[in-house]
Specification:
single chain; 81 residues; mainly alpha; 4 helices
């Protein structure tokens, strides 16, 4: 499941032209979360990945994307409020 999630994160990073460092930091944050939280529901994996990408973009990007963009990348599965 991790491989599918990382592939999706790579696709989103490419689509929004994020830095490579942003992608790698997001994967590291995701791995750290999975190492601390052993029971992640299968339907929440994309949410974890999107949140990690948002946090990484806030750290690495000069002009980070809005959370709405990451919510849109889930094809309507999650919404920003």
């Amino acid at each position: 499941m991790r491989a599918i999630l990382v592939e999706w994160m790579m696709h989103v990073s490419f689509e929004y032209r994020l830095k490579r460092d942003t992608f790698h930091l997001a994967v590291a944050v995701t791995d750290l979360y999975f190492s601390r939280c052993h029971h992640v529901a299968k339907n929440s994996l994309q949410l974890v990945g999107a949140a990690a990408m948002y946090m990484a973009a806030k750290i690495e990007e000069v002009q980070p994307l809005e959370v709405l963009k990451f919510a849109e990348s889930t094809n309507g599965k999650y919404q920003s409020k």
